[in-house]
Amino acid sequence: MISPFETLDAVRAFLADTLLAETPAHLRSELRAAIKLLAETGAQLDALPALLPAESGALLDLIDEAGATQTEDLRCRLAAGPAALTDQLALQDAIGIRVGEVLCALHGRSDPAAADLAARIVATLAGQAQARLGWQSVFATGEEPG
Amino acid sequence: MTGATPQDMARALTHVLGTQWGRDVAISALRRLTGGTSHDSWAFDADDGAVVHPLILRREFAGAALDVSLAAECDLLHALHAQGLPVPRTIAQGAAGSPVGTAYAICERLSGGDLRKRLAGPEPDRPALGLALVAAQARLHDCEVARLPARFLSEHGYRSPAQQVDTWSAIALDGIGAGDALLVAAIDRLRRACPAPGEPRLVHGDFKTNNVVCDDDGRLAVIDWELAHLGDPLEDLAWTMLWTTPFDLVGGIYPADAYLAAYEAVAGRSVDRGRLAFWNLFALVKLAAIFVRSASLAGEGGAARLRPTHAMLLRAMPWIDAQLARQIAALAPVAAEAVR
């Protein structure tokens, strides 16, 4: 049986090798973008199942350190083991909401411990964002604002 | 005529310009340039029997509440041109229901293309282009606000830093959601470190090399004024600093510090680095909002669909997040001072 990724590759190859040359000029940029999107989302779908649990766990540890309450449900969902990718993404979003709330609370404090923890959470989130840079092609990796 | 064919458009332009100039006009070399979500652009030549005019038509086919209307933009360009500032000369404009089918503006088209293309071309004179760009930006910031047109001022008068944060963060959050913790934290940082309102100056809102065109004689014209408003000129500098490929002003011509030094020298005023840090972070939130908005706006003719090119923009959010993290850290001392 053809794997999902082979299917995506086959569709992408058909679009790039056969359809692109037949496409009117004003739609070619859209088709080129679609071809890139298939490659990027394919790589993303392949990597996310292994990435998300570790990322979610790291963020839950950090917000627990900040004294966040009512994280038990999130912990239970994470501990329940392998879940559909849509469920994992929903959990990541729910954790992200709590992380955002924690960061805002830490910003409101003036003690060095709060600043340190906020900096560590931001650094963790930055690392998670960096891990996703290869799944987009709008900006070059390493391109940074001045 | 939102889904106009080139033949439809040529007929409409012949009528519009023939009426405007009071003589027969022949339209040629008409081609649609890359369209936006709320506007599209066409390049063409108009021969009035004596002169061939290279022109650009811009049409407005989807309401975008934050953008300057095409009518107000035309008024603004006319006023800036009258002040001797580097903008294209407007030729004609019309409201919805015109022969062109939508609100439209026709402006002169400079021959040399945009500066991004020039910087990507063979042996660009980078020092001269850099100085010209910085000088153009500073001159726009120094234009006489009192002489700007009433329609522009009523649509896009002064916006304080706090108002800008409220406006753009609402769009970004609405489209991306509160699950993006870095976006939420960035907006919180901006609110805590918001600078006091300053002297209102003209802000272009999207000043970068592909929005500056240049003719073969080196004359510059700044285009794409949809995001113009009165505000803090440092907002413009921070936006320019967002774009750092070899074909941009920062990164392509100047390192960031040298760009700021060049601006300070030309404008004759210093750039408050703390205030700039606020705008650097704001620029990323605004960028996220613009990407979201591009994806959510109805397409030409009101067809709501996510085009692949817009989906690509949304996928750039991890890059924005990575930069948000960097700028949140840069703004931390300013925000901490505000908390104390």
TrEMBL record, chain A:
Taxonomic lineage of the native organism: Bacteria, Pseudomonadati, Pseudomonadota, Alphaproteobacteria, Sphingomonadales
Its protein name is Uncharacterized protein
Automatic annotation (TrEMBL), chain B:
What is the superkingdom listed in this entry's lineage?
Answer: Bacteria
* InterPro entries linked: ACAD10_11_N, AGP_Transferase, Aminoglycoside_PTrfase, Kinase-like_dom_sf, Ser/Thr_kinase_AS
* Domain Aminoglycoside phosphotransferase span(s) in chain numbering: 30-278
Q: Which GO terms describe its molecular function?
A: protein kinase activity
Pfam families assigned to the protein according to its UniProt record, in alphabetical order: APH
What is the protein's given name?
Aminoglycoside phosphotransferase
Q: Which organism is it from?
A: Novosphingobium colocasiae
